[in-house]
Amino acid sequence: MDSPPENAGKGLKPTISVYTEYLSNRISSYFPAASYSNFLSRISNFYRGSSGTSKRRRRITSLPLPFPSSAESSTVVCEASRTVGVLEDIMECIFLNMHYIQKNLEYWQSKAQGSNAKRAYFMICERGPYAFFNGTTQLLSDCVGEGCGMQHTYCLASSYISERINFLSSLRYHLATFLAQIYMKVDKVGEELVKDPEKSLSSLLVDMNDLFLKLEASIGHFHAVRQQSSSVDESYSFPLIFEKLPEVNQEGSQWTDCETRDAINLIYQNVDRLNTYLAAIVTIHRKPRRVTRYWIPYTCGIVGISICSLWLLRHSSLVGSSDIDNWIREAKESTVSFWNDHVEQPLISIRDDLFYTFRKRQKGAMEPEEVQLTADSLHRMLQAFTEQTKGEKAPPNATDQEMLEIVMMRYEKELMHPIQNLFSGELSRALLIQVQKLKLDIEEAMLELDQILRANEINFAILAALPAFFLSLIVIMLVRAWFKQDKKAEGRGRVARIQRRLLIVEVERKIMQLESYKEQGQEKDAQCMLGLALYYLDRLYCAVEGHARATGEWIILRQDIIDLAKPDLQTAHKLRITSRMERVYDCLLPLPKTQ
C-alpha cells in the first residue's frame, strides 16, 4: 500500500501540490468515474499557479533570447510577441528549476566532501527527531550485535548522499540539454523570423512540442525508478506526460490565429506539467529544511526559553514577588542615568562650548583684571624702591625686570646685617616686594591653567559621550549587516564580488568542456555543457545588472554576456571575453585587500 510523502514540499504550496496528486490517484483507484478530478486539479493548479506567479515576479531580469539585433527584429518581436512570451516563460521555468536543483546539488556535494564523522552526524542528528531515534537505536544495536555500528552508519550515509547527488545530477543534465536545444533552436530560427514570421512561428511551435516530447522520454521514466535499497521512501505516483500537437497542425504550412492560440496554450500546459513534476521529484531529494537540520539547537533553545519563563514566573507579581518590578525600575534608572551622563549632558556641553565659548563664560578661579592689578601694584612698588635707593627718578621706560635687579642687589647688601637692617634698613621692604612678585607669578599660572581647562571643556564633553557613540556605532553596524545580507552575488561587498567572479570561472569551465566534447563528437554532452553555461550566464546577468547600470557599464557588459551565450561563437573569442570581463568591469573586479 502506498504511503503519502513525508518530506514533500518546499513550504505550503508544493506540499499541497504533491498531496493533491497523491489523493487524486488514491481516490481514483476506488472510484473510476472521477468526476471530482476537475475540482482537485483546480486546487492543485491554483497553488502551483500562485507559486509560479510569485517566482516570475521575483525574476525581474533574465538572459535575453538570441534574436537578431537588426532594426527589423523589433518588428518581428512585436508580431510574434505571443510566441516570444512562451519562449521566455519556458526559459524562465528551466532557469528557476535548474537553480533549485543546483542549490540542492551543491548542498549534497558539500556533505559528500565531509569526513565520515560529519556524514554520520548528518544521518543521525540533522534529519529530524524520527531519524535521530531510529539512527541511534540502529547504531546501538549494531555496536552490541556485530560491533561495527559506525562503519555501517558511514556506508549508509555515503549511499544516502550519493543517491541524491546522482539523481539531481542526472536531472540537471537533461534540463540543461533541453535548455540548450531551445536556445539553439531560437538562435537558428531568429533569421527566419525576419524573412517569414508567420511560417516561422508555426514551425517554431512544432519544434518546441518535439523538444518537450524528447524531454518526456528523458526524464519521464523517473517516476518508475525506485531501487530496492533506495533511501527515498516515496515513489512518484504520476508520470510526466506532455500534451501533443494534433497531426493536422504539424502538417499545415500556415496556421490560423485560433490554431496558433491553441498551440501556445498547449505549450503552457506542458510548462505547468513540467513545473509540477519537477517540484514533486526534486522535493523528495532536496536538502532538509533548516528547522529539520537544526532541530537540536532549536529544541535546546525552546527548553532554555521554557526554563527562563518559569524562572521569570517565580519572580513575577503573578506569584506575589516584586523582584521583576524592582529590576525593571533599576534598569530604567540605570538607562536614564546613562542617557543623562553619557548622551544628553555631553551633547549639551558640546553645544554650549561650540556656540558660547568666547561669548559667555562663568567666572573662573582667576580673572585677568585681578592679575593686572597685582602687576600694577608690583610695578609701583619697584619704581618707588628704585627712586628711593638711587635718590633719583626712575627712567620712564624702565622694565620691571631691571628694577627687580636693583631690588635684589639691595636685598643682598641688606642681608650682610640682617637683624640691624630688619628694623632700620630696607630688608623688610625688599622681602615684601618679593612676596608681591611671588603672588603675581602664582596668579599668572592660575590664569593660564584656567584658560587651558576652559579650552578643553569640549574635549572632556566628547570623552564623556564616547561610550554612547561606540554603542550607537555597534548597533548601526549590526542593523546594516542584518539588512544587507551580503552573501549572494547581487550584494555589494567582498563576498558578493567573489561570487560573481566564481560565476565567470564556471562559465569558462563550461565553455572549455563544451569545446572538448565537440572535438570528441559527444553531441549530447556538448549540449549539456552549453545549457549549464547558459544557466551560469543567466545568474551572472541578474547579479551584475544593477551594479553595471550604476557605473554606466551595463550596455557593453550586457553585450559581452549575450556574446558568450551564442552557440556558434568561437571558443577562443569567448575566453578572451571572459578574460576582459574579469579585468575591465568594476562590478567584477576584486576589492583591494585592507592592510
Automatic annotation (TrEMBL):
Q: What is the protein's name according to its record?
A: Protein DGS1, mitochondrial
- Membrane topology note: Multi-pass membrane protein
Protein keywords: Coiled coil, Membrane, Mitochondrion, Transmembrane, Transmembrane helix
PANTHER family recorded: NUCLEAR CONTROL OF ATPASE PROTEIN 2 (PTHR28234)
Chief location of this protein? mitochondrion
Q: Which Pfam families match?
A: NCA2
Location within or outside the cell: Mitochondrion membrane
> Membrane-spanning regions, if any?
460-483
Coiled-coil annotated residue ranges, if any:
428-455
Q: Which top-level group of life is the source organism from?
A: Eukaryota
